[in-house]
Amino acid sequence: MTNQLTFNDKISRIISLAMRKYAPLMILIGLVILFSIISPNFMTPYNILILVRQVSFMAISAVGLMFVMIGGAIDLSIGSQIILTNVVLSIMMAYWNVPPILAIPIILVLGTVLGAFNGLLSIKLKIHPLIITLGTASIYKGVGYIIAASRNIMGFPDSFRFFGQGYIGPIPVPIIIMIVVALIGNFILTKTYFGRYVFALGGNEEAARLAGINTNWMKVTLFSICGFISGITSVLLLSRVFAGQVSTGAGIEFDCLTAALLGGVSFKGGEGSIFGLMTGVLIIGVLNNAMQLASFPDFSQTVVKGAVLLIAVGFDVYQKNRKAREIVAKVAA
After folding, report:
1. 59-91 tens-digit pLDDT
2. Which of 159, 173, 154 is nearest to 242 (CA)?
3. E strand or H helix at 167
4. pLDDT given for residue 219 in this prediction
5. In a 3-state reduction of DSSP, which class is residue 53?
6. Which of 232, 221, 202, 216 is nearest to 78 (CA)?
7. Bridge-partner residues for 168, per DSSP?
8. DSSP 3-state assignment of 150?
9. Is 141 among the domain residues?
């Protein structure tokens, strides 16, 4: 009887692990098959290229958010950071005639500083990052609106188009940058001591601190990474739109969060992978693209995204609770 129970427990554990690892991929495959049947234009090479280029901006920002989430925190100010850095970059190039080769590094530093500010506030005020970044999101967005003064800022050098509109061979530059950011992020998380510290911090902060990890420094670093990557997204979006607008980047944090949760990045920290994240990003991209092909009204798309976010959070909580019950049962046995 004991052997039978042990065998059943092993089977249950294997199924649970498979669900956590492959459920997002199976959902993606199912959506692709479904929309390929519904819309003949969905699986055309042209539409696939558009789809991947559309999600590349979100995917880049999602990598930054993933670092913060695995570390046990969250950053809801990503979109507002992009609004502010997008406006500042526009003014630098259009009004101050700063060449892109100088303006872009300055904006990346600004994005890093904005992210670090989030981390410092959460440490010093000892308030959950959810609340901190909601507050800083309003601040960053407000400052961006004030600086923009209701203007669409234009007049950039043509060379700046390359980052958001250019191609390297047949592949759009944003897609190449997305791949590079994802590969670097995966290497850091899986092949370095820093990556191990990130998972340790999100898994159990107190245990990580007792193990000698400087948890405060780690938190600021993770938020700084997120801000730096948001700066990259800001540059690409501005180059793509080619006009400084306060609407650029607004709401991107919602899609990034949904994609991360769909891809298996835990809301409570300590779990996640680049492969899962990219799968979640593609799920959101497929849904957006399919609804656009079907001419869904904007408000309908918002309803669908909200429902997907709730489902993703619910699934994450279910998996966490199930894992906790398995640990308790194992200890009790």
Report:
1. 999 999 999 999 999 999 999 999 999 999 999
2. 154
3. strand 167-168
4. 97
5. helix
6. 232
7. 171
8. coil
9. yes
Domain ranges, residue 82: 45-315
Position 21 in a domain: no
Q: What is the pTM of this model?
A: 0.91
Per-residue pLDDT of 15-67, as tens digits, reads 555 566 677 888 889 889 988 988 888 999 999 999 999 999 999 999 999 99
| Angle of the 2-38 helix axis to the 298-332 helix axis, nearest 10 | 170
Would you give the end-to-end CA distance of the chain in angstroms? 14
Asked if 248 and 237 count as a contact pair (C-beta separation under 8 A), the reply is yes
Provide the H-helix boundaries in the chain. Answer: 2-38, 45-70, 78-94, 100-124, 129-148, 161-165, 173-191, 193-203, 205-210, 215-241, 252-262, 274-293, 298-332
Q: Are 242 and 161 in contact (CB under 8 A)?
A: yes
Q: CA-to-CA distance for 55 and 78, rounded, in angstroms?
A: 16
Report d(CA 137, CA 331) in Å as an integer.
43
- Of 252, 255, 228, 257, nearest to 115 by C-alpha is 228
Number of domains within the chain? 1
Instruction: Assign 123 to helix, strand or coil.
Output: helix
Distance, in Å, from the CA atom of 295 to the CA atom of 302, rounded to the nearest integer, reads 13
The Cβ-side half-sphere exposure at 92, using a 13 Å CA radius, reads 20
- Residue 323 CB partners (closer than 8 Å, separation 6+): 16
- The answer to whether 280 and 260 are in contact (CB under 8 A) is yes
Which amino acid is present at 135? Answer: G
Instruction: Give pLDDT, residue 150.
Output: 85
**What whole-number distance in Å separates Cα of residue 131 and Cα of residue 94?**
35
Nearest alpha carbon to residue 78 among 106, 107, 118: 118
Q: Round to whole Å and give the CA distance between 8 and 10.
A: 5
CATH number (domain holding residue 113): 1.10.3470
Is 30 a member of any domain?
A: no
Closest CA to 132 of 210, 240, 226: 226
